[in-house]
Amino acid sequence: MIRQSIAVAACVLSAPPIANAQEPYNLTAPVRNLATLFTDLYGPNGLIVDSEATLPGEQPHTAHFNSDFQVNFRQFSTAMVSQLVSVPLPSPASGFTYHFDASLGVFERTTQSFGPILGERAETIGAGRVSFGFTFQRFTFDTVEGIDLGKVPTVFTHDNAVLRGGREDVVTTTTAIDASISQATTFVTLGITDRFDVSVAVPFVGTDLKVVSDATIHRLGTTNPLTHFFRQSNGDAGDRRIFTAVGSASGIGDVTVRLKHTAAASASGGVALGLDLRLPTGNEMNLLGSGTAGVQPFAVWSATYQKVSPHLNASYTWNRASVLAGNPATGTSADFSDQVGYTLGVDVSANPRLTLAFDVLGRYVIDSERLRQEDFHALDGRSVFPNIVFGRESFNALSGALGLKANLLERLLLDVNLLFKLDERGLRDKVTPLVGVEYAF
Questions:
Q1: Cα–Cα distance between 266 and 228 in angstroms, integer?
Q2: What is this structure's pTM?
Q3: What residues form DSSP beta bridges with 140?
Q4: What's the rounded Cα separation, in Å, for the pair 380 and 383?
Q5: Which residues pair with 440 in a beta bridge?
Q6: Read out DSSP for 287-331?
Q7: Which tops the pLDDT comparison, 397 or 83?
Q8: 282 Cβ partners below 8 Å, 6+ apart?
């Protein structure tokens, strides 16, 4: 595991004691961009612990404390963007689907329902038909791997801690992460033939990120408060300091181009094959996009039984390398995790002007950076602190969705949907609301 060093001063030697300050000093870090917010949180040289101790001969001694947090928790940024680009876009297929009846010389609707919201159905819009849409989604992330984002624990340990003595000292942090993303998506679908259409979805993304880390020095191997301390705003020495980093950005996200072909069709249903091409148009350094192209072939089965229309979707996303999966601070890229996606749902035509939509959505993320919470047992044999550790493995995440499509007038539809988590795997939002409109002509 890669470790990020944070400078602290010498571990032993005497000096007159000094009282701890009652209030921790709050430092706000300058933010270059959102992708490096976590590595910049404690400043360019890491979390600096003050010291007035010296080595024999009056030589200053620099020790180091280490933690997986500062470097590896940059993967939180990757998780945010992964969530952003993997959450299903509202279906660009029109709620109104048509077939040209040559014997009558007119277009006829092929389904009673207005279709799913986050799922996809096999029907295409129809030759020469056009559909426009606009949706707005708001993600407010609450947990990562089941850990409350309001209190993420971390332990920083001394280098060569096995040598004991003053190296038994640790620094613990409790970090509160406030992360939210707004996504406004405009899409258009054009029917090339009765069985083939092309869609383009253009998202405008706004990302807000605030991190507040409360750091505390625990003197497990030293007794002199001037060996390891935080200089307070009034000049006193204390054992706590609060670090804050705040940033926001907005702009175009990753544009998606969708090609869909109805491979088989009957009066009761059909099968469609398609391809999504995700273009890296979003600024990955400000967490507006993935920083890599993505190719997602997919298959769709759907059927219609009077007013009930079930559907099943399956996809696989190949991603290329992205700096977000590597090290944004150094510009090093690594593979962005591939994903398997699947959706099972049904839409029900409640009446000629209202369709209800229900979906279960899953994504299987392959070989992704993950974290878990475990106890850290200090070398003094007595002290135990909560901590997070990192590793790589694949995982499956499930979400549910409830929504409706209402026909306001002519071919204008209002879409309302709630996406909610069904487990705690990955970075999760309890409930993600969506509202949108679409019009076909």
A1: 75
A2: 0.84
A3: 180
A4: 7
A5: 131
A6: TSS-SS-EEEEEEEEEE-BTTEEEEEEEEEEEE-EEEEEEETTTT
A7: 397
A8: 203, 205, 251, 252, 253, 254, 288, 289, 290, 291
What does the pLDDT look like over 23-33, one tens digit per residue? 677 878 777 78
Radius of gyration of the chain (CA): 27
- With beta carbons less than 8 A apart as the criterion, state whether 10 and 67 touch: no
The residues pairing with 376 across neighbouring beta strands, listed in sequence order, are 385
Task: Please give the DSSP secondary-structure letter assigned to residue 95.
Answer: S
Q: Where are the beta strands (DSSP E) in 352-411?
A: 354-377, 384-409
Higher pLDDT, 38 or 105: 38
Separation in Å, CA 370 to CA 38, 77, 324, 366: 16, 12, 14, 11
What is residue 421's predicted lDDT score, i.e. its pLDDT? Answer: 94
Q: How confident is the model at residue 61 (pLDDT cuts 50, 70, 90)?
A: very low
Residues 436 and 217: their CA atoms lie apart, in Å, by: 50
CA 246 to CA 26: how far, in whole Å?
13
Which secondary structure element, helix H or strand E, spans residue 141, and what is its range? Answer: strand 130-144
**Alpha helices per DSSP H over 74-176:** 75-86
| 129, 191 Cβ separation under 8 angstroms | yes
**Amino acid of residue 254:** D
- β-pairing, 4-9 vs 62-67, is antiparallel
d(CA 162, CA 165): 9
Burial of 255 (0-12, 13-18, 19+ CB in 10 A): middle
